[in-house]
Write a structure and sequence with these properties.
The complex is a heterodimer of chains A (about 325) and B (about 240). Chain A has about 325 residues and is an alpha/beta fold. Chain A has 11 helices and 13 strands. A 6-stranded mixed beta sheet of chain A has the order 5-6-7-3-8-9, with helices on both faces. The chains are: A alpha/beta (about 325), B mainly alpha (about 240).
Chain lengths: ~325, ~240
């Protein structure tokens, strides 16, 4: 795992006292399905009050991580703790609310009946009207859930997650079925909830969403933490600009060592460098006389995300930044 | 847990299929069986009573097994998974489902008995009616457990088929539709060991003014233990993957 999994901030750096009071800790957690390791030695600590995005591509291990976090799936190795307790104990104590990814609407129940029922199982629930309002379901309270649209049903699942007024809110790809406007409403409600000092963990495969709505982004790649930090730090780590030029037969070995460069990609006779400091990189390239067809372009968020999670390790000679 | 039972009972009663097939079918069958080619005289009068008990038992059986079909549906919807991340303990979810089954057998029992009294003019002592309802209600517990076992163990589609298969087989072999006196000797012997036959016998003995015999109670107790064990086994297996 040379270099590629270095963390901007991580459990290794957290003081022991900080871990004891943590909302979530994963210690050496592995989950295998046969020969496949969906989660592979995961180390993660989330402090109370943090809003954390779990970012990764499909199959990166996000849902497996969420399921272990909720006690729905035991880890093959390692330990998961919520507020210092086993996940199931924290769930029984009503400290956790979650929106699962694969839930389908429960038939023959109205929105209010369902939310009311779930709320009543918690020791200190939110007012049902308030939960419905936060989830944008005010007018749909009396409707049967199996007669709602996909986006509306998703809001019901959000209301169910909120209903118990939990300290830890877990949302597994919460905006998948929502249109643009519903998405915006959803995130503003989520942030309003998080503002009350609650811990929120959501998974997504959009860096943009993670960057905009989380204080901290944990990038998962093949079951491991590939990067961990604020949106700005992640973007920085992935390189903020892309510099490309014609090699004209020049050697490529030294490129990775140039100032600012964090990734090198060679396509035919053209080199593409990802850099955190395009000025320094270009200056160094000029020194090497490698400026034929030189182009400098800002890296998009999607570029940054792809750079952090490229599938094959060989295609990713990523080096430490900062 | 009572909130959970209330929610699930509401969901079951709102199901039109349940109302039509679970409550309507036994009533229609009872009216057919007692009015088409049933003749008259004292034998017909007896048949009206025993068929009423048999079809009330059949209705109860259907609702009890149907509870398991509901579990399989909830499993496939992810609702059982969602329940697992609420503070509600899993044991209460299972028990709540079982209680739901017990509550939803009552409409079918009540409907058939009501038709027996009002349409077919059956007259019995008040204690007999009361005992009939209570015994058919309690006696349906083994079948609720069988249905729950299937629901936890099998896929949603398979549960529907298996529970319908169980319902038909147990009802017919158990003599809930036609009296086992009409069966060949070997089948009659077999039938007397089946749970549905002894379940109906609880009611038949009351309707004849007596009390259920110890053999009937013992055989039902064995089936209760078997189906209960199966339900626990199925739940434990399912809990790993829910």
């Amino acid at each position: 795992m040379t270099g590629t999994t270095s963390r901007v901030r991580g459990p290794g750096a957290a003081p022991a006292a900080g871990r004891a009071g943590a909302a979530v800790t994963f210690t050496g957690v592995t989950r295998s399905y046969g020969a496949v390791r969906a989660v592979d030695g995961l180390e993660l600590t989330i402090a109370p009050g943090e809003t954390v995005a779990l970012l990764g591509r499909n199959g990166a291990g996000k849902s497996t991580t969420v399921n272990m976090l909720l006690g729905l799936l035991p880890p093959t190795e390692g330990e998961v703790r919520l507020f210092g307790d086993a996940p199931q104990a924290a769930v029984r104590a009503g400290r956790v609310g979650a929106m699962l990814q694969d839930g389908k609407p429960v038939p023959r129940v109205t929105v209010r009946e369902l939310v009311q029922f779930v709320a009543a199982t918690y020791p200190d629930p939110m007012d049902v009207g308030e939960a419905l309002r936060l989830a944008g379901l005010g007018e749909l309270a009396g409707r049967r859930i199996d007669r709602l649209s996909g986006g509306q049903a998703q809001r019901v699942r959000f209301a169910v997650a909120l209903a118990g007024n939990p300290e830890l809110l877990v949302l597994d790809e919460p905006t998948a079925a929502l249109d643009v406007e519903a998405r915006r409403d959803f995130w503003s409600s989520m942030r309003r909830y998080a503002r009350g000092g609650r811990t929120v963990l959501f998974s997504t495969h959009y860096l943009e969403e993670a960057d905009e709505h989380a204080d901290r982004i944990v990038v998962l790649d093949r079951g491991r933490v590939a990067a961990d930090g604020s949106g700005a730090e992640i973007k920085q780590r992935a390189g903020s600009a892309r510099v490309s030029f014609d090699l004209a037969g020049a050697q490529t070995g030294a490129l990775a060592g140039l100032p600012g460069v964090c990734a090198v990609e060679i396509r035919g006779d053209r080199a593409r460098l990802r850099t955190t400091d395009s000025d320094a990189t270009v200056r160094a390239l000029a020194g090497l006389d490698l400026i034929r067809g030189l182009q400098v372009a800002p890296a998009s968020l999607e570029d940054a995300f792809l750079a952090l999670t490229t599938a094959a390790p060989a295609a990713r000679p990523t080096k430490e930044t900062v | 847990m009572l909130d959970y039972v209330r929610l699930e009972v509401r969901r079951t009663l709102r199901d039109k299929t349940f109302a039509i097939f679970g409550i309507g079918m036994p009533v229609v069958m009872y009216l057919l069986f007692t009015h088409v080619g049933a003749g008259s005289g004292p034998a017909a009068g007896e048949w009206r009573v025993s068929s009423m008990v048999g079809l009330a038992a059949y209705g109860a059986l259907g609702a009890a097994l149907g509870c398991g079909t509901g579990v399989a549906e909830d499993k496939s919807l992810g609702w059982l998974r969602q329940l697992r991340i609420t503070p509600l303990p899993p044991a209460q979810v299972v028990a709540g489902r079982g209680l739901t089954g017990s509550v939803t057998v009552l409409p079918a029992i009540g409907a058939v008995l009501l038709v027996g009294a009002l349409v077919n003019g059956i007259r019995m002592a008040a204690w007999q009616w009361a005992a009939l309802v209570v015994l058919l209600w309690l006696g349906s517990v083994p079948f609720t457990l069988l249905g729950l076992g299937n629901g936890y163990r099998l896929s949603s589609q398979a549960t529907g088929l298996v529970n319908t298969g169980c319902l038909l087989l147990l009802s017919i072999v158990g003599g809930l539709w036609f009296p086992i006196e009409a069966f060949p000797g070997w089948l009659r012997t077999l039938a007397s060991w089946t749970p549905a036959n002894r379940f109906a016998d609880l009611g038949q003995s009351i309707a004849q003014g007596g009390a259920p015999g110890p053999t009937t109670v013992a055989i039902l107790a064995v089936w209760l233990a078997l189906f209960g064990g199966y339900a626990v086994y199925a739940y434990r297996r399912a809990a790993r993957t829910l």
